[in-house]
């Protein structure tokens, strides 16, 4: 079971295509335990890729796999659960899938892949919006998001694709009262440098939009929900930002009816890539990942022999992590601090995902910010080798995600602490492990969503137990529950040749923060089965943590998902 061959095939089976859809919801068999009577009525949506290999010899990177939305609907009061799944009918999916012949031919390169059976040299179909990264239900709409394009809207129950949702168009009107915000939030370089970047941006925009079909602004796939104000927060950046040493960020806040409440724009003098971000009462918080243009990689990418993402490389030239604290309101910037100057966190760290952030006044009249997140080493992060993708043999090599020194380099849970004085100047910034009891790789930190933007005690995360000799770090096989008040950690793990996905917390409305359940998918790849697991959040670390396991019919077993969302009915 624990051989090198078993590890290789288990890893690759985790990303096996599922061509079948489940349009009519099917009842899930309870394979273990029972759905508890206090489990709320609602739907767990899980986004992720479903199709990796076409019928003409091409295998794409997991990040370029066509979006496949899964939905687990619970009736409440201990009733059963029903499952459905459908592909997101994006423009790329309609072009590449012949429904009549039930065949696939990949024509889009996508940012991370190299085609084998399709056109390579001169193929400018790079922006393959597959709507596979995250999912959201807000204002009665279900949206599937991707990192480089507009989201797609799906029917909340039937999962039928309704079409692209122009969410940035909602923010294009006059609801932004601070029209000169971008100018005020621009940190000035010497005028000659600034003029050169302006000229380069003007030259790049028509090429990126006209040739490569990139939208002028790309919406990030990660959003935030402010439960106190009942707002949805989203952020977009400019297409040319990937290639220039300047980053433009526009933050949008929507009310429960998708009406734009606020829009704030910032221009930062840094070449950054942002995947996840966070917020507090007064700030939008960006942990910057510094990148640079890779000229040899760009040339190889243009030939079609390397993925387009090879045009970028990490920039490890500075031994710190920039943390931008951007004012969420005009009142928040009244202190006079230059918010375009980042707080430089002491260790160099590539930010991956953020679980929570909050700020509190301190005894000296200042403010203390805390961030609970995952981050990895610049030495390990590699754009076009993520997931071990090897476009030459069309396989995924687990060795990249399980390197001998990976324990210290792969994503780990940390707390970032920032102390600001009355004027907003940084007195101190520190980064430490979230738990000294848990030092192994971990990612996808989650909390009880009711505690977003305020002090929380518990963080739940996917984690690696290290029980597999040849897969010690990834894929994850555990959920770790960290008590940030004392640094203690408790673990629940699967046994044998199984893996787990991202944990999602489902609150039950109790008085304690951990009153609720943790949902996650268990992938029994060697048996070609999936189970939705319900854990009692209070009992993680105990033998009876599993409340129920719901079995997905074998012919509907799906590949590993990315990010999910729980929506109460």
From TrEMBL:
Keywords: Dioxygenase, Iron, Metal-binding, Oxidoreductase, Transit peptide. Binds 1 Fe(2+) ion per subunit. The keyword Cytoplasm does not apply. Fe cation binds at residues 275, 353, 563. GO terms for molecular function: 9-cis-epoxycarotenoid dioxygenase activity; metal ion binding. GO terms for biological process: carotene catabolic process. The keyword Transmembrane helix does not apply. Its cofactor is Fe(2+). One of its GO terms (cellular component) is chloroplast stroma. It holds the Pfam family RPE65. Belongs to the carotenoid oxygenase family. This is Carotenoid cleavage dioxygenase 7. It comes from Panicum virgatum.
């Amino acid at each position: 079971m624990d051989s090198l061959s078993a590890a290789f095939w288990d890893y690759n089976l985790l990303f096996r295509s599922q061509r079948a859809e489940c349009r009519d919801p099917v009842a899930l068999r309870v394979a273990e335990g029972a759905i508890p009577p206090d489990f709320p009525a609602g739907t767990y949506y899980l986004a992720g890729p479903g199709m990796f290999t076409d019928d003409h010899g091409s295998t794409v990177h997991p990040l370029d796999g066509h979006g496949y939305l899964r939905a687990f609907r619970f009736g409440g009061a201990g009733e059963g659960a029903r499952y459905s799944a459908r592909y997101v009918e994006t423009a790329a999916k309609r072009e590449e899938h012949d429904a009549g012949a039930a065949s696939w031919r990949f024509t889009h390169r996508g940012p991370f892949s190299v085609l084998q059976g399709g056109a390579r040299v001169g193929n400018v179909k790079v922006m393959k919006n597959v709507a596979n990264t995250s999912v959201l239900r807000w204002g009665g709409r279900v949206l599937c998001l991707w990192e480089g394009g507009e989201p797609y809207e799906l029917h909340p129950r039937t999962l039928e694709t309704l079409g692209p949702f122009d969410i940035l168009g909602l923010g294009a009107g006059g609801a932004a009262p601070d029209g000169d915000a971008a100018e005020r939030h621009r940190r000035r370089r010497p005028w000659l440098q600034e003029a050169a970047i302006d000229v380069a941006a003007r030259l790049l925009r028509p090429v990126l939009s006209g040739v490569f079909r990139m939208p002028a602004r790309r919406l990030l796939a990660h959003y935030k929900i402010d439960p106190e104000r009942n707002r949805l927060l989203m952020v977009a950046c400019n297409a040319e930002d990937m290639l220039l040493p300047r980053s433009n960020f526009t933050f949008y806040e929507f009310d429960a009816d998708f009406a734009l409440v606020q829009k704030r724009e910032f221009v930062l003098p840094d070449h950054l890539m942002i995947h996840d971000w966070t917020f507090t009462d007064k700030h939008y918080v960006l942990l910057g990942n510094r990148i640079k243009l890779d000229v040899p990689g760009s040339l190889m990418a243009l030939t079609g022999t390397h993925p387009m993402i090879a045009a970028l490389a990490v920039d490890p030239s500075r031994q710190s992590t920039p943390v931008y604290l951007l004012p969420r309101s005009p009142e928040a910037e009244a202190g006079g601090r230059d918010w375009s100057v980042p707080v430089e966190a002491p260790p160099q760290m590539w930010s991956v995902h953020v679980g929570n952030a909050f700020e509190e006044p301190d005894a000296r009249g200042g403010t203390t910010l805390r961030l609970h997140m995952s981050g990895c080493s610049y030495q390990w992060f590699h754009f076009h080798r993520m997931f071990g993708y090897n476009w030459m043999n069309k396989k995924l090599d687990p060795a990249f995600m399980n390197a001998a020194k990976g324990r210290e380099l792969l994503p780990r849970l940390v707390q970032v602490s920032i102390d600001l004085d009355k004027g907003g100047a940084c007195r101190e910034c520190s980064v430490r492990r979230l738990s000294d009891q848990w030092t192994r790789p971990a990612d996808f930190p989650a909390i009880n969503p009711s505690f977003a933007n305020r002090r929380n005690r518990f963080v739940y995360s996917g984690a690696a137990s290290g029980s597999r000799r040849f897969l010690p770090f990834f894929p994850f096989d555990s959920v770790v529950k960290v008590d940030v008040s004392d640094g203690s950690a408790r673990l629940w793990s699967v046994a044998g040749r199984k893996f787990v996905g991202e944990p999602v917390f489902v609150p039950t409305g109790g008085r304690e923060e951990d009153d609720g359940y943790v949902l996650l998918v268990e992938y029994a790849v060697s048996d070609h089965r999936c189970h939705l697991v319900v854990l009692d959040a209070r009992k993680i670390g105990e033998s009876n943590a599993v409340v129920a396991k719901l079995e997905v019919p074998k012919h509907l077993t799906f590949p590993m998902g990315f990010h999910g969302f729980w929506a109460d009915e």
